[in-house]
Amino acid sequence: MIKIPFLYALAFSIPLLATSCKSTSGRLADSTVSSAESDADERLTALAKRFAPQIQFHRDEKFFPISIEEFAIHTHIILDGREVLDSVLRGGSLPWNPDNYYVATREPLVGPNIPQDWMAGSDPRKGTAPMLYSIHDAGNNTYNIQYMPFFAWNEGKNVCYSLAPFDMCLIKRVMMGNHVGDWESFTIRVKDDKVVAIRLGAHEDRYTISDMSKIKFEGEHAVMYSARGSHGFYEKPANVTYQKIPTGDKLIDEATGGIPWFTWDNLVRVNENEGWAQYRGHWGNSVMGKAACDLTPIHIIDTLRKGWNPFGRLFGSKMETSAEVCKRLGLDKEFELGPGPWWQNWEKDKDGF
Q1: CA–CA distance, 149 with 57 (Å, rounded to integer)
Q2: Same domain, 31 and 56
Q3: Residue 47: CB partners within 8 Å, gap ≥ 6?
Q4: Are 200 and 215 in contact (CB under 8 A)?
Q5: Which residue positions in the chain have pLDDT lower than 50?
Q6: pTM of the entire structure?
Q7: The total number of structural domains that make up the chain
Q8: CA atoms of 102 and 283, how far apart (whole Å)
């Protein structure tokens, strides 16, 4: 055994003890911060679960929520028709080009109106569908909880582009507005442990309800109604006419309920650092099938513009082309299978309504 003089050993040990104490103190401080953060996260998670809504799907709904992981199995990211990444789970690694990326099906679609079997998602009567959410501290003991269900398929509407007097289509109806991938979202504002406002909507039309007497609650869970096929949300059961077409036809959302979804059974908090959450592009295939303009008699305008008929001699080039008319009416953007929706805005209602 090697003997070390006592005073030498003591002098050598003092700085080590000081370092050890400092290190222990630092670890305790870090541990305290980590514990506080963990407690805060648990509290926010509990808050999101406590006020998570009950969703009422239409009794004839065929397409239910799906997890991002399941969606990724059946899709890949393409650019100009070629694969650039095999999974949206790593979508955040792509260079910035949001207009031209598409999360498309690995197996090509047979037609614009034929979804693939896996797109049915998770029927809440048979399993637990996932509900994504993010939560933001708005200050003054107020939190905005944004819930974001994701669906693999959006079912469009049967539309009449000929005259449709008294809801009777003179030619035939055509399914329009399908698309792969369907993000929906709504936000519940909680202040002092009470729901004080809900922001919801459908077809890009969002509105805020602050009078909670207009909302049905099951305990502390607000009840909302999902439109059949297109999944937009309404605060009460109804058949809602959300658009009137110049031909006389109407587009109606059927949101009358029938299949309950208890979203608090499977809440998944969005980690914005995950690759799929950083993906910027379309969540679905590019367009397929006919455009709305191709289903109308608008193209007769091009014939009338020619000089061999009375209309052509009278108006000639002063008449708009069919393409110009279609663009002005917005019919050039509607397809039997439209493009997948753009990336979801996780902070849409972060700072308020």
Answers
A1: 12
A2: no
A3: 135, 143, 145, 190
A4: no
A5: 1-22, 24
A6: 0.83
A7: 2
A8: 6
